Amino acid sequence: MDALSEELPLLGNTAVPTRQGWDAAAAAVLRKAGRLAADASDSLALASLSRRSEDGIVVPALGTAESAAGLPELGLPGHAPFTRGSAAPQSEETTADGWDIRTYIAESDPAAANRIALLDLRGGAVSLWLRVGATGTDIADLATVLDGVYLDFGPVVFDCDDDVDPVAVAVAFDSILTTRVLRSAPTSNLGADPLASLVRSGGVDPGCAATASAAVSATIGEVGAIAARLGTRGVVVDATAVHDAGATDAQELGYSLAAGTLYLRALVDSGIDVNTAACLIEFRYAATDNQFLTIAKLRAARTLWHRVCELSGVVESARGQLQHVVTSRPMMTRYDPWVNILRTTIAAFAASIGGAAAITVLPFDDALGEPNTLARRIARNTSAVLISESHIAKVTDPAGGAYAVEELTDATARAGWAQFQLIEESDGVVAALADGSLAARVHAAAVARSADIARRKRPLTGVSEFPLTGEQLLDRNRPPTSGTKPRPGALPAIRYAEEFEEMRDAPCSGTLFLATLGSVAQHTARATFVANLCAAGGITVDAAGTTATPADVVAAFTRSGAGVVAVTGTDAAYVNSAVDVIAGLRAAGATWIILAGRPSEDLAPLVDDWVAAGVDALAFLHRTRAHLQETT
To answer: Which of 244, 262, 242 is closest to 192 using CA atoms?
Structure first.
């Protein structure tokens, strides 16, 4: 301990570091990095390392017993309020099997879908998540797709396209079970979720909310009756429908509570008792590569659903929320798709820590089209490695008790409940879709996120940062699109990388010249910054290399034949030679001159544009591409 104290003297010479010790240690590092003033209070250090989520929730850099004081009691895993998990932990004598590894199949060819299903099940998948409709399997082909699948042992969860009647899917599955004289696995789900179709298609006209709500309730009631008879689940609340459209974590939670409440009421109104009805519903959430926010969201979701069930008169044993968690589709990229393996691994890790009952890891090439065999295998094995090699499932609620996580969970739950109340103020989720209020909030969140992505405050590795120059996209078949045309008010799915990728898809024909001042060591920082940014926007660059005088720079520019120039160098080089370099470039025919870095008062009138960290990179790239097009 003495040796440790010598290494970390600011933490104090005690076995338990104090808050003051943490403040001092963090402050010392920040001052050394130039991120905290020498005369600033140590107490500002950790606050400067904290950040805010898209919902405005503070994500603390350090949690303490004092900061977590006053939080509600969480109880034990498997007990109210189910924050720590919907299921009780395994006994010491029992080895945890982990979560349900659920594989997603959206294949129009029934024979191919059957091959994929059997291969995935033999390769470690526990259940199938089967898309039915124009973007997946036809209802008439379900028997072929499920041939050879042990339906009494392996769960099947259906996912109905917007053009498919969930009741017809339920009837078809019932017929398959009857023909094969089987009883469905209890955790199968008939997949009725008409609200998700309304979200994606925008199918609620203003003034028709009551009619649409009645249709939703009727569908849920019919499917619920079939599910209750089959002894399986019948309803899914797919909150990824709003997540995919850009919703924040709190908006995703609020939507799921509103949809779950509507479905619970519809099941009860159809004649199913409230306790049975609660057990017929499964919830689907998205997991992102922001692990702590994902963990908090899943823990908060169970807390909030417990409260809804409690207010609805559901017995405690039926209030545990069954969560199917899917790695986020919006975070996936088409360029440098191998990075998606890292993103989905972090997301799956967070989902498991957060207590998901089933996890679907999307293949790394999902954004490109139909995943190939290797991608599907890696996706399955991500969960297998986390369970069997990392032993994540050995511990129940491993994040429980961590002060920062508990603070974040509580704050996320409160923000989710507030979003739920906003929806209820519109007289329910269908009315909120009809009046556009839900779409407006989600759109506002998406716009704010897009602004952060454009300024690279949310970097996308391989796309907006560190792009792979000359990359060729992987060749994948594109799946068919839904037969339902989106209507006004729809919340279409987006991907965070789309705007950058669109520029990469259409490379600029011109070349930007890098007017590098001085030696490589002197200009490399800003030259590399500009080159990487241009590569992210489909712009080719040609650098002057080492230069000693303004004449060297101008000569290299003349040889390049370019018209658009970016001047890069140190601040000292700008003071000494930038004026002469810019004048020489103008005289040599430069039509658009950009300065790397914020220009001084003297240089600002001499250049046409400038770029530095924190600017709107997308806007800069579009401007630059436009000028390059003019010069070719």
So the answer is: 262
